[in-house]
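From the shared-data thread, chain only:
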Amino acid sequence: MPIYQVHPNELSKIWPIAAPMLQRAIDLDPEVVTIEQVEFSVRTGRTFLLVWDEPGEGITGAVTVEFIDYPRERVAHVNLMGGKGVVRHHVFDEAKNWMRSFGATKAQCWARGTLVQMYEKMGMTNTHQVMRTEL
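Structure, as tokens:
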């Protein structure tokens, strides 16, 4: 199985590989989060880090996931995804299985621009528009 969860106590070994992949995703919307905040969130267990290891290639991608509990569903929210060939059907299927193992009933991510079409090709549906205001 090429996808696996990186536990916080293993982070020091994997972070130098995963961080640059995640940083590319951060660079698309840099005002949202910093790589240091992501590392802290993974290290403290608030966010999960998954990496995939393609046979013969090594770690080729990384994703961060948080779970949101609503009264009628548990949603796995993908925060960041980065790496070579980020969206591959076999990786997406394994990630969904991992999410189900944590009780998730839905998976979601925020996307804009050309990323929307990429995720639609993977079987995701554009369900909401996010409206936001400063507080």
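The chain has four helices and five strands.
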